[in-house]
Specification:
The chain is an alpha/beta fold and about 160 residues long. The chain has one domain (about 1-150): Metalloproteases ("zincins"), catalytic domain (Collagenase (Catalytic Domain), 3-Layer(aba) Sandwich). Helices cover about 45% and strands about 20% of the residues. It has helices at about 15-30, 45-55, 95-105, 110-125, 135-150, and strands at about 1-5, 35-45, 65-70, 85-95. The chain has a 4-stranded mixed β-sheet. Helix 1 links the parallel strand 1 and strand 2 (about 35-45). The longest helix has 18 residues, at about 135-150. The radius of gyration is 15 Å and the shape is globular. The protein starts with a strand and ends in a 6-residue tail after the last helix.
Length: about 160
């Protein structure tokens, strides 16, 4: 899987990129995602993510992560298939400010929080959601299963 990283904050290190890349590659195997998938992850500040949250969700406040899936199909859309065509899953936007706040709040590392948010966004790109209690249970359980299987527990 190919991940393009964009850091508007200049606060995310190469080690963080490597961790997220390894975690999402692990998650892709667990989810049987095709190897030629691609996505982007942008790291922004609270101000930028608040603008995006207001524009796309109608919520005028910063959030921790937003996902914009590209592989959702409309009913009348023609499905294009082929093994050499990359599958563009979509875009994930992570607030570095919120990641720092939440790492402190939950008493774990910034790295763990970035990994958690990247995985959360990735699962949204795959169609997981938490709009109701049943879906939330499924998504959050899968999240913890992948994080623990990868070795990125809350203590890290």
């Amino acid at each position: 899987m190919k991940i393009d990283f964009y850091d508007e904050t200049k606060k995310v290190s190469q080690e963080h990129y490597d961790l997220i890349n390894e975690l999402l590659s692990y998650a892709a195997k667990q989810e049987n995602t095709t190897a030629n998938s691609e996505l982007s992850i942008s790291f922004v500040d609270n101000e930028e993510i608040q603008l995006l949250n207001k524009q796309y969700r109608g919520l005028d406040r910063p959030t921790d992560v937003l996902s914009f899936a590209l592989e959702e199909e409309a009913d009348d859309e023609i499905k294009i298939t082929g093994t050499d065509i990359p599958v563009a899953l979509g875009d994930i936007v992570i607030s570095v400010d919120k990641a720092n706040e939440q790492a402190s709040e939950y008493n774990h590392s910034f790295s763990r929080e970035l990994g958690f948010l990247a995985l959360h966004g990735y699962l949204h790109l795959l169609g997981y959601d938490h709009m109701n209690e049943e879906d939330e249970k499924i998504m959050f359980s899968r999240q913890e299963e992948i994080l623990n299987g990868f070795g990125l527990s809350r203590e890290k």
